[in-house]
Design goal:
With about 260 residues, this protein is of the alpha/beta class. It is built from 11 helices and 7 strands.
């Protein structure tokens, strides 16, 4: 997958917003959600000679663990987007997993850009389908639903999903109903992913997932014995977001001192 400048013109940005749940020290709660964003220009996404691996030559990251109605996260995302060239002439393509808090962060860019194209991230949509286990005789029907979604045919997918729900055992209906609600809630953001891939347009955030992994999962989420407070984790996230951005060499002293002074 690569990005084409023809899609958005010379003034273009891609933003991926995602979250991760962290085990918490707060009494009475198991976890809280930390938010991350990755912003980059389409031309920064390059493939190797075989076209099997993509890398970003330039990006800026934003993160927050604070429970402040997304104020810090929105501010950090705007700053990251401005560093990547956001302007009133910029056309933004936003990919999210469908969560309202992710789209809220994206919408904060609306007054600052020319347009925003909202896309339900194919990585998360396909994983929702992949994680549903069905009897062998029903699996082809689920594959067919995915086939229609890949082509942006949401109405056809929902009709086939209704039929599958009628045919499946009672124990599987709940998961399929959740998938149905997920698709219906994000219908306006489901696109023709196949066509976008063929044209070299962005349709998934799987590349940005590696940044989320480095910002949250490796240090926090993956260490199941570790528990965090929001106030304790946030300085670490700010440091990791700075390290993941391409101006790290310019700001590392300030970022490190801010992190260790808390």
């Amino acid at each position: 997958m690569s990005c084409s400048l023809y899609e958005l013109g010379n003034k273009a940005l891609i933003i991926n917003v995602d979250g991760g749940h962290i085990n918490t020290t707060e009494e009475g709660k198991r976890s809280f959600e930390a938010m991350t964003a990755v912003i980059y220009r389409p031309e920064a996404l390059i493939s190797n000679d075989k076209g099997t691996r993509n890398t970003l030559t330039s990006k800026h990251c934003a993160a927050s663990a604070l429970d402040d109605s997304q104020r810090q996260m929105i501010n950090n995302t705007i700053v990251a987007a401005l560093k990547q060239g956001l302007s009133p002439q910029t056309n933004v393509t936003a990919l999210c997993d469908g969560a309202e808090n992710c789209w809220k962060i994206v919408e904060a860019l609306t007054p600052l850009c020319a347009s925003i194209t909202h896309i339900l991230d194919w990585f998360h949509l396909s994983m929702k389908i992949q994680n549903i286990a069905l009897p062998d005789d029903l699996k082809p029907k689920l594959v067919r639903i995915k086939w229609h979604l890949w082509r942006g045919k949401t109405e056809n997918a929902l009709k086939r999903l209704d039929s599958l729900i009628d045919d499946c055992p009672k124990t599987d209906k709940q998961r399929l109903e959740k998938l149905k609600s997920y698709i219906k809630n994000n219908t306006a953001k489901i696109v023709n992913y196949r066509e976008r891939q063929k044209n070299g347009f962005v349709f998934t955030s799987n590349l940005a997932e590696s940044t989320v992994e480095s910002l949250i999962n490796q240090r926090c989420k993956g260490q199941q014995h570790m528990r965090w407070s929001r106030e304790g984790l946030d300085p670490l996230l700010q440091l990791r977001a700075a390290m993941g951005s391409n101006d790290w060499d310019k700001i590392w002293k300030t970022a490190v001192m801010n992190a260790i002074s808390v």
